[in-house]
Amino acid sequence: MDILRHYQLEAGRAVLESVIGGKGLTFCIEIARQGGKNELSARLELVLLTFSRTKPKNLIKCSPTFRPQTVISMSRLKDRLNDAGFEGIWSVEMGYVIRLGNARAIFLSADESANVVGHTAHLLLEVDEAQDVGKEKYTKEFKPMGATTNVTTVLYGTTWDDSTLLEETKQTGYELEKRDGIKRCFRYDWQEVAKYNPVYLAYANGERERLGENHPLFLTQYCLLPVRGGGGFLSAQQRAQLQDEHSRKRRPESGKVYVAGIDLAGEAEEEEGARLRENKPRRDATVVAIGELDFGAIALEKQPAVKIVEHYSWTGKKHTELYVQLVDIIKNIWRCRRVAVDATGVGQPVSSFLRQAVGSAVTPFTFTSQSKSELGFNLLAAVNSGRLKMYAGDGSAEYQEFWFEMEKARSHYRPSQTMNFYVDPAQGHDDFLMSLALLVEAVNQYQPRVGRGSAGSP
What we know:
With 458 residues, this protein is an alpha/beta fold. It folds into two domains: 6-206, P-loop containing nucleotide triphosphate hydrolases (Rossmann fold, 3-Layer(aba) Sandwich), CATH 3.40.50; 231-445, Nucleotidyltransferase, domain 5, CATH 3.30.420. The protein contains 15 helices and 17 strands. It has helices at 6-20, 37-51, 66-83, 135-142, 165-180, 190-194, 198-211, 216-221, 236-242, 268-274, 319-333, 347-358, 369-384, 397-408, 431-445, and strands spanning 26-31, 58-63, 91-93, 97-100, 103-109, 124-127, 153-157, 185-188, 230-232, 258-263, 285-294, 305-315, 338-342, 362-365, 388-389, 410-413, 419-422. α1 runs parallel beside α2, α11 (319-333) runs parallel beside α12 and α13 packs across α15 (431-445).
């Protein structure tokens, strides 16, 4: 087994001191993503099972989901038991209990629907990815597991926002620390982890470059800084990064590669019943955003940059009236190599028609809470990295509406580490915003053509 790093040992010793001394403290341990919190957890479990194997005592660990999170935790503990010479000695019971002698490690799901009541934690109660565990589930069903044993509790995770179980427990821990001087909260961001691992330093720097240092995922997963409940989706700095000096184009240039993002307007009453897109106003427009790919100085494993070169917009036109025009634009005029189109609700038949008419270059995109969140994070990453640029001002209605929506766009971060981005219907529409996000999706879906004798070509 590898030797634990200094920061892992510091937090681990504090937990073991509480267990051995019967103090029953509650700890919060935040370690940057891929920094070793799961390894620390497995080592604590190994030590406690080893020294308690002659006693009928339990430690309990819960995770937001049984698969894959709980299963991964069990696999890691099995590996550490084998490394310690217990291969063939430990056993598995009921599929979720690992026994060493009389001591047991019980692994449970913290999903809202999981039935977990009835277990008792004697040695340790662990909550993995605590930022994703419901506060009510923890308070009513897991915390009482250690009520009669004064069990030591550890919440592991990375930060998200002010409302999570992890963040609220951490703030309580800080208040208690002021009173008795006992450190309960341990926080090790990516820079601390990188001190002990040069490979990790390169990895984290790569993520900072890819996402941007102000991206919500980099801030929370690596810097361990919570995002605030909501606010503007794009800051003034991000909007400045998005602006460029290249000219708008009406037709493609020879030898260039083009992609498109298409946001479809809802159609009257059907939209109200079928719109899964959150905060989407009625009577919006169908918008097509055309992007030109820039492969200059882009490594093979990274996405190319994209320049927005054209917008098309129609308000009040039925989808059936736009079929021929949409096909002509993306197939005959721009010869788009990848098209991401809104396939939500009434958009589904349009996306199917385009795919039949244009071919596999068309990728339908269905908006759900999860998929829209990923779309928003990817859009932020493209802006932050400087890969996405908007054409220079031309006095057009499309240009003005684009920047209006960029300024009015809002974001809302959910406890599940997902986000929503939108324009408040009371202020306007989000068609240009969504077509922009779908344009980035089209770029991410794009695969260069690979020819014989070459690494690849546009």
